[in-house]
Amino acid sequence: MNENKIRVNLQMGILKPIYDVFEAIVDPEKMSKYFISKSSGRMESGKTLKWEWEDFDAELEIEVQKIEKDKLVSFKWDGSGVECNVSISLEKLDTSHTAVKITEEEWNADYDGAKKCMGQVEGWTHFLCCLKAFLEYDINLRVGGVIK
Asked: Is 146 domain-assigned?
């Protein structure tokens, strides 16, 4: 990373096998239980998908870059208003414990870039908490979470 750029860098442990975590990230039916409302398809390398968030009345296109089963999901999007690369990597800690690491890059190291990056830190932290609640406890934290 260049010193004139900033990025998101987060991680969390999920008490589920790596396969279950991977499938929750690439399968639109599972994603709709903790992150998005709808997707135009399953995440696969080279696909362009549309994600919708009904609770925010928002939609975005993502360009899936690379999918490595049980290891990596990467895509481009403009979730912050700036086209960025997102990488979600998975690491098997043991048979029922998976580390999820997310990076999103990059923004200019100025006030506007910092503001956008911090918004994405908030969003990806929420993503990880919602993923954990869904997989470990079958709870959708997004239900009733948006205050308008």
From this structure: no
Cis peptide before 106 (omega within 30 of 0): yes
Residue the block writes with tokens 């490595």: 68
Q: What's the CA angle centered on 38, arms 88 and 35, to 5 degrees?
A: 45
What is the rounded (10 degree) CA torsion for 143, 83, 11, 40?
50
- For position 49, which CATH number holds? 3.30.530.20
pLDDT at residue 16 in the model: 98
Q: Is the pLDDT of residue 146 over 70?
A: no
DSSP conformation letters of 38-96? EESS---TT-EEEEEEGGGTEEEEEEEEEEETTTEEEEEE-TTSS-EEEEEEEEEEETT
Which of these, 17, 3, 39, lies nearest to 99 by C-alpha position?
Answer: 17
Give the number of domains in the chain: 1
**In the prediction, which pLDDT does 143 show?**
79
Q: How many CB atoms lie within 10 A of CB 123?
A: 15
**Does some domain include residue 96?**
yes
pTM greater than 0.85: yes
Calpha distance 89→142 (Å, rounded)? 23
